Amino acid sequence: MRGSLNFTQDDLTEKPFKAIDVDVIANVYYTQNNGDECSVRLDYSAIKDAEFVQKLKEKLKVVYRDGEVKIGLNGKLKVPATCNSEKNRLKIYITSPDLVKIAQEGVGSFYAKSINSDRLEIDNEGVGSVKIGKILANKLEITNEGVGSVNIDDVAGDDMSIDNEGVGSVKISKIEMGSLKLDNEGVGSVNLDMFKGGNLIIKNEGVGSVNAKVDCQSVNATSAGVGGVDLSGVTRQYNKKKGGIGGISDGGLIVRN
């Protein structure tokens, strides 16, 4: 595990933040609060290797800069095999009144029960996954570039985009949005259990598949990759374009003009 997190002494002083960037082996637990508290708590208790804990404490830095908190390493650190497992990882507890960006670059998972923000950007680049219960945001951008997956139970707002480029998958149980633009370019798949709202634009260019159940105004689907697009539900307007190996399965989609 290697990190090159640059910082000044002032950056180590706790300051308010609206963005989180994690690049370390850890499980992150985020809680939004109603006050003005912005804090980060590191819990090493699950790591059973005392020597590794000491070295990790020396190398791990929490940097507060430009409205963002960055958690990463300053230098190289060898991680014992026993400390790679889910139950033996560092735990990071973060709270803030607002959150506009989550960047997950390391190994591990990011957990949150609910996030309410005017805009929110989720960038999952690492090996770990992002698991969130409910998101309420006027504008939501999800980018999944790594090996891990993004799982969200409930999303509501105005404008949303999903860009899935990696090996991992994106699964969202319920979406209520004015518009959703979905671009699937990677190996992983995207599953939308239910999209309710305005316009859904799907562009599938990768190996993975897209599955979407809808109750919306319009669906525009393009299949240009190897993976297929499977559509079901009800829409008022429907357009499709096929250019790749993968097909568009729309037998379960009803168009009601």
Question: Could you explain how this protein is built, in words?
Answer:
This protein has 257 residues and is mainly beta. It folds into 2 domains: 99 residues, Pectate Lyase C-like; 157 residues, 3 Solenoid (Pectate Lyase C-like). It contains 1 helix and 16 strands. It has a 16-stranded mixed sheet that branches. Strand 5 and strand 6 form a beta hairpin. The longest helix is centred in the first third of the chain and has 10 residues. This is Putative auto-transporter adhesin head GIN domain-containing protein. InterPro entries: DUF2807. Pfam families: DUF2807 (PF10988).
Any low-confidence stretches, pLDDT <50, length ≥5?
A: none
User: How confident is the prediction overall: mean pLDDT?
Assistant: 93
Q: How large, in whole angstroms, is the Cα Rg?
A: 20 Å
Main pleated sheet: 16 strands, mixed
Protein name: Putative auto-transporter adhesin head GIN domain-containing protein
Organism: Segatella copri
